[in-house]
Design brief:
globular, 14% strand, 3-stranded antiparallel sheet, alpha+beta, 3 strands, single chain
């Protein structure tokens, strides 16, 4: 599976450098690197994301599939289960939940983004 910053791990919601260091040694991650998010998809708080290639064991992938198979778009929900900050309380196959920023930090960042948008 291939993941990028779109719906993935980015510095707005994650401690991206810590997550990167962790994922470099993750058994399921074949390749991971930090990349700048293009200006048209970035904001003041969202400037870098991780791109990565991941291969899960059949057992873990089946567990993920069983969780999403009845949703409207199950193949896109699989990606959410892997690295979307709002889904990691469901299943956390990569073990990255610990790198999600706190609600307080996200709220503070949102204020900064709103102020930046007003300029």
């Amino acid at each position: 599976m291939y993941f990028d910053y779109i719906g993935g791990i980015e510095n707005e919601h994650f401690y991206i450098d810590n997550a990167l260091d962790y994922l470099k040694n993750n058994e399921f991650v074949i390749e991971v690197k930090k990349e700048e998010i293009p200006y048209y998809n970035s904001n003041v708080n969202r400037t870098y994301g991780l791109t990565m290639k991941v291969i899960f064991t059949t057992t873990i992938f089946k567990k993920m599939w069983d969780y999403v198979k009845n949703s409207e778009y199950p193949s896109s929900k699989i990606k959410d289960l892997v690295c979307s900050y709002y889904m990691l309380d469901k299943i956390d196959p990569l073990g990255i939940k610990k790198f999600v920023k706190s609600k307080k930090e996200l709220d503070e960042q949102e204020k900064i983004r709103d102020e930046d948008d007003e300029r």
